[in-house]
Amino acid sequence: MATQISAVHGRILDLDAHLQAPVSRWGEIFGEATARFGKNFSGNPFFDDAIEPELSVDTAWTKKGSAAPGATTPEGRLATMDLMGIERQLIFPQVVLAMPAWSDRPGAEAVLREYNNTVVKWTKAGKGRLRPAALLNVTTIKGALAEAERVIDGGVRAVLLQDGVAPGGYSPAAPEVDPLWALLAKANVPLTFHIGGQGGFFGSTAWQEADLLRPGTFSTGEPVGPQMLGTMHMAVQNYLTAMIYGGVFDRHPALKVGVIELGAMWAGPFVDFLEDRLQQSRRLREALKRKPSEIFVSQIRVTPFFWEKTARQIERYGMPEIYAFSTDFPHPEGGTDPIGRMGADISKLGPDAVEAFFVGNASLLLPT
Asked: pTM (2 decimals)?
């Protein structure tokens, strides 16, 4: 049985969930370009099961994949969130759908626009509670800006882009990219990074080509193997290093960033490392207005996996404001009792920490 925490039930903010429609319905829900790509996953039970069970506490937390209650429609999602005790939710696409939309292959723009059109519909139907993130393709800054303007005009309240790709071929701190950060900051639209966006950072898949390191298949969820488990945070660390040391957050103090489903145990040591290395550069010390820890607290949020020891991280490194709850609904990586597992850990720090972890901290990315 999934755990309820009465102090926060009904007010929880969830920073990671997914819009997961059966691929056999991608044409109906997204469009024909997306449906053509979806044929690659037709018949896979995780991606193409359309038999949705009756909504209950048990099915909401234990049924995974495209047949989970509320996986496919905004109305069903709101009902499932009510049962879970969730007030607002940040929602991402399937990684297998994001990949063609982020590519430079023929048809990429059509898939991107089809998905984002659905994001606009979900946002409007979500009554302020559903916050699906629109995809931005950063092959060119001009294209990313145009799509960002389009979806923001449509009411979208979050965007997702790749952390393994230099935007437009530039450093994230380059002046050529500043117009994108300025647009998002002015609109109060968070920039998010999510597992699956690290492609391109390593430049080769050879690192995982060994018996103990290979990922699994898409049969039960995302194909995450041991090599990825140990390195999934490195691309976003690289991206954030450029943004922090490059002065992006000082130039755009209203820009908000979410680092989603990449774990959180790296965050404290990473900030420690950045502040240590800052001492080696007088140029940076003179140029930057705030320390990396201050930037993280005011502008960045990270989501721990349910098994991580977040309370220990806070005790060691401070920054209790940066950690926030997520379900990963309806993916198996989120577990079947994330509220209970994470609540048992964070409650060691007291009721104020529980309130912050499940509600307050995430409000940076999910404002009313």
From this structure: 0.96
